Amino acid sequence: xxxxxxxxxxxxxxxxxxxxxxxxxxxxxxxxxxxxxxxxxxxxxxxxxxxxxxxxxxxxxxxxxxxxxxxxxxxxxxxxxxxxxxx
Length: 87
What we know:
With 87 residues, the chain is of the alpha+beta class. It is built from two helices and five strands; from the N terminus they run ββααβββ. Strands 2-1-5-3-4 form a five-stranded mixed β-sheet, with helices on one face. The longest helix is centred in the middle third of the chain and has 8 residues, at 26-33. The radius of gyration is 15 Å and the shape is elongated.
């Protein structure tokens, strides 16, 4: 089945379309994509993942056409950082 895997760091955005075996999980699709090698800073033990913007577990089975997303950790506390549009 065909799925997409998306990840973005500060400098690069990647969205890969790939074919995975039927019954694959989110984690298996991410591993199959090669993004863990390309971006060694990805830590699936701590980072959240989702399908089409909804949080998901690594053990969730993917369906045909799903877009799997790997989310970066929040690096700034939104309560202490000034708003960018407050000029």
